[in-house]
Amino acid sequence: MSRRAWARLDNASNIFLAARSEVDPKVFRISAEMDHEVDAELLQRALETVYDRYPLYHSVLRRGVFWYYLQASDLRPVVESETLPTCAPIYRPDRRTLLFRVLHHRRRIALEIFHALSDGTGALWFVSDLVTEYVRLRHPAPDGEERSEEGTSGKGPRVRPLAELPEPVTDPVTDPGPLHELEIDGFALHFRGRPRGAAAGTAAEGVGASDASTGESPEQSAPTTAQPTVPPTVRRTRTPRGRVHRVRGTRTPDNRPRLVELTAPADPVLALARAEGVSPTAYLTAVFFESIRRTSSGRAASRSFAASVPVNLRQFFPSTSARNFFATVRIEHVYGRGPDDIGSVARNLERQFRPKAGPEALERRLRRLVRFERMPALRIVPRPLKDVLLNLINRVNNRGLTVAISNLGRVTLPAEAEPRVGRMLFHVSAVRPQFCAMSHAGMLAISFTSPFVETDHVREFARVLTAHGIPVTVVAARVTEEELAESGADSGDPIGVRA
Predict the structure, then answer these.
(1) Three-class SS of the chain
(2) How many domains in the chain?
(3) Which domain CATH number covers 304?
(4) Residue range 262-304, pLDDT digits in tens
(5) Least confident of 76-85, 131-140, 317-326, 398-407
(6) Would residue 104 count as lying in a domain?
């Protein structure tokens, strides 16, 4: 019998195993709304075709004495009708299963994935290829005409940030060669050997510059989770810390995340950010801080609000791997020590992010983390003990964050799929209030997730936008017993409210 391919988990993935819980199983979702009811049979055929282009997604997770590792399998995925709560657990130590699932519900096609397998960029490539193949099966090209190959075989969508400036335009894939192999590890490729000089690309120009990965880290990748040793230039620009505000609330009855989807036209939101001279993510984060502050007790008025922001490393260090390849940056604002209006807060967040998210600063930090991970003394520590230590690091770092954010930016799908897809949405399981944003077809979709029942902060967020004349639609998923018991209620059907 031939030996199956395997690979150790990458630097950003190790914490997901130690930090997962029933509240936060480290699962995220990317979904696309079609212009018709989804045909499950055609979606299955599309999945079978696309699955063969992604050897990484054939992996199952195995446990060794000293580490976890991914191993190739012969398992085949099956499309499922959505019946479970969103972002339900995928990885089970006692089961040998694939680390993702493809779902459909009415007009939606959704990919849910265990974060140890892939990040937002890798998942977006898969979703783009899946939707494009599905559209090709449903609307075959007339005889004699050839389909464009853009976006297939892992080329994926073109991902652009939500504004032309100050965030850089990025196309995550330019290499048409073999992609998404199990063994490819961007961290090992770029940060394990000798420094190669300045990293490719230009310095990040704004908060969330084509983040294309999910949030929740710095606590999600130890030693990436630990507070890094910050270069002197960053220390000088760091905001003085106050006591970090942490959101409290009523836990959902069965640990399902409270999901609220907010949709608004993208251009007016971008105009608000440009008027303040900041990136869209910096502006939306400032609005998020203000929304939570308004709905918190008076003690929040003079506390520090901190957020983790993921940065897609592919924009600086070329990689076509769909495995996790991102870093996180922590930004904060201390209220009561200067101007606290949304514009001032956004500019403060932007100033903090720039020096931390440039390629040189990221490379220095990640080389230190990779060296730490590969220290002989740590490599021989048994895996169960490593899990305990990483979980402790995760808990300590959780105390230093108020929220987490992630922005996949503006997505353009291949030509065949583009007119057939409306909104695209992105959200994660969460241990604290979080938002994930992405834009498609001129609509900005912001998905708020939280382990708490309360949604007052989302209402305030919507009020900030509507106060500027921006129309907003808000839809919340049912989580409480009363909501689920409503006549005709379905766990996959939301309660809709127009703000």
Answers:
(1) CCCCCEEECCCCCHHHHHHCCCCCCCEEEEEEEECCCCCHHHHHHHHHHHHCCCHHHHEEEEECCCCEEEEECCCCCCCEECCCCCCCCCCCCCCCCCCEEEEEECCEEEEEEECCCCCHHHHHHHHHHHHHHHHHHHCCCCCCCCCCCCCCCCCCCEEECCCCCCCCCCCCCCCCCCCCCCCCCHHHHHHCCCCCCCCCCCCCCCCCCCCCCCCCCCCCCCCCCCCCCCCHHHHHHCCCCCCECCCCCCECCCCCCEEEEEEEEHHHHHHHHHHHCCCHHHHHHHHHHHHHHHCCCHHHHHCEEEEEEEEEHHHCCCCCCCCCCEEEEEEEEECCCCCCCHHHHHHHHHHHHHHHCCHHHHHHHHHHHHHHHCCHHHHCCCHHHHHHHHHHHHHHHHCCCCEEEEEEEEEECCCCCHHHEEEEEEEECCCCCEEEEEEECCEEEEEEEECECCCHHHHHHHHHHHHCCCCCEEEEECCCHHHHCCCCCCCCCEEEEEC
(2) 1
(3) 3.30.559.30
(4) 999 999 999 999 999 999 999 999 999 999 999 997 766 668 9
(5) 317-326
(6) no
